[in-house]
Amino acid sequence: MKAIRVRQFGGPEVMRLEEVPDLRPGPGQVVVRVRAAGVNPVDTYIRSGTYAIKPALPYTPGMDAAGVIAEVGPDVKGMRAGDRMYTAGTLSGAYGGLALCAASQVHPLPERVSFAQGAGVFIPYGTAYRALFQRARAVAGETVLVHGASGGVGVAAVQIARASGLTVIGTAGSEKGRELVAEQGAHHVVDHRAPKYLEQILGLTDGRGVDVILEMLANVNLGKDLGLLAERGRVVVIGSRGTVEIDPRATMGRDASILGMVLAKTPEPEMASIHAALAAGLENGTLRPVVGREMPLADAPRAHQAVMEPGAYGKIVLIP
Question: 49 near 57, Cβ under 8 Å?
């Protein structure tokens, strides 16, 4: 089979398409024939060698994929070859024709969800759900601000928050992105490149502020976010590409909280809750992953550049 391999940490160019041996499942494992693999910002951090987790070299990138089970290992029950699945992590990497997974890492993909959409489920929707409900403890009736709402996690957060009874304010930096955010159900859409967008957000809350902020670029926005919070507001830091200076007094007067999160740190009982919620949303159509670009597997280097560029629009997926 063909797969992307990384033999040294570095820029996107270190990823090469190579011929590798086919994968076979061991006890408690399955092999998924990959029809689409999702590209996430975390994939680029791992590839660069700057992430806390450094896989042994060489390795195949990627955690999110969708496809059909090609082979089931011993002791695996309730799954068979041909079943449609999405992955929540892999043992072998997702950027290839096949992916080896623990049986616990694969989950049913409803017929109504395409493989390209399925490749955009776990990290975006799992991150959004954990940020909203397990970290921020958001409840119906509160107001949430989703910064960068046109990207994979942002779209997921808008859909989940709207379906859960929150008032949703989404930001995006392009007209196309703002149209997408509105289509996904945001009550209000703001251009975060506009000079007075902070005042606009406060105006949408009649000056009260927002209860929850999901922050995708904390090194740019965190200091500004604190001035947008309501009493006992919470900011969940989902992404950051550097350091930032803040005034801690902005949290004190509001009794506010700054919460960090990494999906990989989710305790097992909470992860099980996430998967139950995602399964329900995919089945009833509440969750509708948006695919912005489909690219050939060989274009993985270009996909890693694109996923980090401004003007995010839906999910980027690779097609083997």
Answer: no
